[in-house]
Amino acid sequence: MPRLPSLFVSHGAPTFAIDPGVAGPRLTALGRYLPRPQAVLVVSPHWMTPTPRVGTAAQPGTIHDFGGFDPALYQLSYPASGHAALARRAIERLSKAGWSAQADERRGLDHGAWVPLLHLFPEAEVPVFQVSLPSRLDAPRAWAFGQALAPLAEDGVLIVGSGSLTHNLYEFRSSHGADEAYVSAFAGWVREAVEQGDNARLLRTLDDAPGARRAHPTAEHFWPLLVAAGAADAGAGAPPATVIEGGIAHGVLAMDSYAFGLAAA
C-alpha cells in the first residue's frame, strides 16, 4: 500500500457535527478521494496526558465532552470500531522514539475526533483509535511527536491532527470581539507557509504570525497542525500539501484543513 498522507483538520465547535458549513462537504470529498486507510489515528487536544496514551478499545465509545449545546448533539454517535493491532504498533513506534507510551483500553473518541470524522468518513467504516497529545509541548517537540508516528503511514494508517486553525474561546463565547480580519491574516500566513513547504516558518508560527497570540491564547489547538506536518516530513521531493478551504465559522474560527503529502486532485 502506498504511504498515506497526514491530515490537519480544524474541528471547530461541537456544532460542526450538525452544521457542516463550508468545511464539512469538502472533508467528505477528501475522504472519498483518499486511498482507503486500514485505520485512522487521531491526535486531539481534548485528550491530553503527561505521557502519551493510545486507545486500544475494540469499540471506542462516543464521548460528548461539552456542555450547553443543542440537545441533538448528545444523541449523535460515531460507531467506528477500533484497531488494537495498529494501536499497539503506535505504542511501539512512540516508545522507539523515546516517548513513554501506554495502552488505554477504555478510552473512547472525544469530539475532536468524532466530529470531523462524521464528515471525513460519514459511514464510520474505517477503524479509529486515538493517541493522546502530550501535555507539555513546544513547536519542535510537537513536530517530533508527529515524526515518531510517521512510519505508521507506511502501514496504512491515516494520521490526523485535529485542532483549530484559530482558537480564541473568549471571543467564541462572547457576543463581542469577532474580527475576521485578524483570523484571515493568521490563516493566510499559515497557508502560505504550508503551500511553500516552509517548515521553519511553520514552526515559528506562534512567534511570528500576525495575530498569533490572539488566534491562540493557549497553544494546545495549534500543536496538532505541527504533529500532522511532522508526520509527513519526508524531505525533498515529497508531494506538496493540499489546502482544504473551510471558511470562517462564528466570526473567529478559521476552518481550513491541510493534507500533507497529497497532491491536489
From TrEMBL:
Cofactor(s) the protein needs: Zn(2+)
InterPro entries found in the cross-reference section: Extradiol_dOase_DODA, Xdiol_dOase_suB
Assigned keywords, A-Z: Dioxygenase, Metal-binding, Oxidoreductase, Zinc
Residues of the Extradiol ring-cleavage dioxygenase class III enzyme subunit B domain: 36-234
Keyword hit for Oxidoreductase: yes
Listed GO MF terms: ferrous iron binding; oxidoreductase activity, acting on single donors with incorporation of molecular oxygen, incorporation of two atoms of oxygen; zinc ion binding
Keyword match Metal-binding: yes
Family (UniProt): Belongs to the DODA-type extradiol aromatic ring-opening dioxygenase family.
Protein's name in the database: LigB family dioxygenase
Source species: Hydrogenophaga pseudoflava (Pseudomonas carboxydoflava)
Taxonomic lineage of the native organism: Bacteria, Pseudomonadati, Pseudomonadota, Betaproteobacteria, Burkholderiales
